[in-house]
Amino acid sequence: MCDKTAPTFDEVNALFANSDAGEVWGKAVSIVRRINPDYGFSPVRAVFEDMVALFRGDYPGYAPVKTLYHDLGHTLHVFLCAARLMHGVHVSGTPLRDEDVTLVMIAALMHDIGYAQTEEEESGTGAQYTQCHVTRGIEFMQRYFAAKGDPAGHSTRLAPLIRSTDPGYPFAQIEFPEERARLLGQLVATADLVGQMADRSYLEKLLFLYLEFNEAHFGNYSNVHDLLRQTARFYEITREKLDSVYDGLYVKLSAHFKDTMGVERNYYLDSIEKNIDYLGKVIQREEAAHFAMLRRGGIVDKLQGL
After folding, report:
1. What's the pLDDT band for 303 if we cut at 50, 70, 90?
2. What pLDDT, on a 0 to 100 scale, did the predictor assign at position 2?
3. I need a labelling partner for 222 at 20 to 30 A (CA). Which of 89, 210, 242, 258 fits?
4. E strands, the chain, where?
5. Which residue ranges make up each domain of the chain?
6. Taking the domain 9-304, which CATH number applies?
7. Is the separation of the CB atoms in 115 and 67 below 8 Å?
């Protein structure tokens, strides 16, 4: 018997249509109000507007962010996934305080800001900072809040949360001031991984990621097709990390969707597994056929025009 409460195909697709900053903000507001209807959005709203301006090149002293994979869209995906994940954790029996919500949302917004370049750093795309972008992002965050006087003391508490997204820094070595802060770090790190891999154009965007890695001389990929082949193994490693290091928090997304859409289902995990299943079909083919199978977003055409 059909579940009449199940969302439609278009409603599920809309979950991952996160290219419009204004729409993403509206979605995040509606989610956070389910955690606390009286939550004060002003501090996060200010950071949201500044980070959007920075990516677009409207932030004083900074050029537009030029990395094609780690772009504004990537940050918006992670930001919204973080909001949904927090709500799932909250309704699953771990109540989150307003302060927790604020820190997670700001960390999600700033987690990749280390790719941004000042007007004096405009050589390259910013991808050359791949291996140190998290450290650069923390330094930017510290300057940002220092300039505002940091009345809420965000800077010290945000640093370990942003560090949690650093794939080259062992999570166990991050110094969290308390166990609650460790949970928040797990939330941000989980949203970073799950949010990007659930993107409907994730496979196509891997072509952009290869350009970033190539510019940074990072990874051991013979070509873009090799990166596609190795991504299947990357997912296996990532899933193990999500389950162990981050305590399987991603499963809490099911509680979010039960509360908001009436179906206890993890649409993020569904989307990721569809991506990986399709990737398996792509890499079974000859390299010459790979691009023809990656048709979303006009990304292949853009890549070939670079």
Report:
1. confident
2. 45
3. 242
4. none
5. 9-304
6. 1.10.1300
7. yes
